Amino acid sequence: MQVPAPAKINLTLRVRGKRPDGYHELESVMQMLTLADTLTIADADGLVFTSSDPALQTEANLAVRAARLLMAHCPTPPRGAKIHLEKAIPMRAGLGGGSSDAAAVLATLNEFWNIRLTLDRLAALAAQLGSDVPFFLDGPCSVIRGRGETVVPVLHHTAGHVVLAKPAAGLSTADVYARLHAEPAHASSEHLPETAAMIAALHTGDATVIARTLVNDLEAPAFALLPELARGRQRMLEEGCLGVILCGSGSALCGICPDATTAAHAALDLTNDFPWTATARFIVPPL
Q1: Is residue 287 part of a domain?
Q2: 87 an active-site residue?
Q3: Does the annotation mark 132 as catalytic?
Q4: What is the predicted pLDDT for the residue at 104?
């Protein structure tokens, strides 16, 4: 059984404040991309995990943790599984690769082992693994709130074209948040204006409107930690991107492009400025 684990971008990311539990209250429009890791799952005695990147073959890997967490919630001991992870999404990029891998393992092993946990039960397990993991059980586009545990799907059919670029240096999410000044969070059931604006932009299908609606509160601290991101953003705009946004807490940047040709040319030209570039499209449900 082979399953994709797609990357994500945050089209908007607003920090509504810091919660009493130490987490930040977030509101974000998140979108899955066609760029994806690939997980291959087969029968095995016990749990066996391998990866195209040998450095990831540890018990600390989120995919392994997801499998063991699901095993612990089986009513009867499941048969084993061999999980192979083929990495395509760079690490420390803000593209959600590890979280997506974990969600794919939860969803696939739930079927593979015939456990039949409901989506709500799986989402509760996903939240134990990381803030972004519940989103990847829903998708392909959702508004997430809280620290990521509240996921509200957004239906649109805009197959946006993007170019992604990552500098050699990664960024630690903890370091980025440590530089962010956030007031205490206040409860609210209302969407932020930026969220409503992005949802409306997605429904227009107009890349220019989407590009001018991008926002990420983590850009200021991330750019302070890694000043080359500002230069990278300028280069991406010079290559025809309509707008450029930091991916999550970084260090990858995402440029919204008017079409696939612009994205492909930009990815090629930006290889002189970034060690890793890629093109992708928004994942959208079939019409």
Answers
A1: no
A2: no
A3: yes
A4: 98
pTM, entire model: 0.94
Name the amino acid, one letter, at 124: A
In terms of Cβ atoms closer than 10 Å to its own Cβ (0-12, 13-18, 19+), residue 78 is: middle
Same-domain check for residues 10 and 139: yes
**Could you read off the pLDDT of 89-143 as tens digits, one per residue?**
999 999 999 999 999 999 999 999 999 999 999 999 999 999 999 999 988 999 9
Reading phi first (left if > 0) and then psi (alpha if -120 to 50, else beta), residue 96 is in left
Q: Which of 132, 138, 166, 217 is catalytic?
A: 132
CA angle 282, 234, 240 (to 5 degrees): 50
Cβ–Cβ < 8 Å for 9, 33: yes
Residue 237 lies in domain: 161-281
Whether 216 is in a domain gets the answer yes
31: in domain: yes
Q: How far apart are CA 284 and CA 83, in angstroms?
A: 27
Count other Cβ atoms within 10 Å, centred on residue 183. 9
